[in-house]
Design a protein that fits this description.
The protein is mainly alpha-helical. Helices cover 32% and strands 5% of the residues.
């Protein structure tokens, strides 16, 4: 679109900053992390470390209807870590 040389930067800066990320260079995939918006009166969730790869695989597969034998078979094949 003619005249759209800011790649939406002027209209999206607030949304990006509210979620705690910001494209440092418009049009590139790299994001700078910052502090997300906090709404007063809303309790914040405690920060927890990210799960390790495969840490919750068994629980997730059970939620989706896999039996323990099927999960063991997937682990033996190396499909699930």
């Amino acid at each position: 679109m003619p005249g759209n040389d800011d790649l939406g930067e002027m209209s999206s800066w607030y949304v990006w900053s509210a979620i705690g990320m910001y494209p440092e260079i418009p049009g590139r995939a790299e994001l700078v992390l910052g502090s997300p918006l906090w709404i007063g009166g809303v309790e914040k969730a405690a920060a927890t470390p990210a799960p390790k790869l495969g840490e919750h695989s068994t629980a997730i597969l059970r939620e989706h209807g896999f039996a323990d034998e099927e999960i063991a078979h997937l682990r033996a094949q190396g499909v699930v870590g």
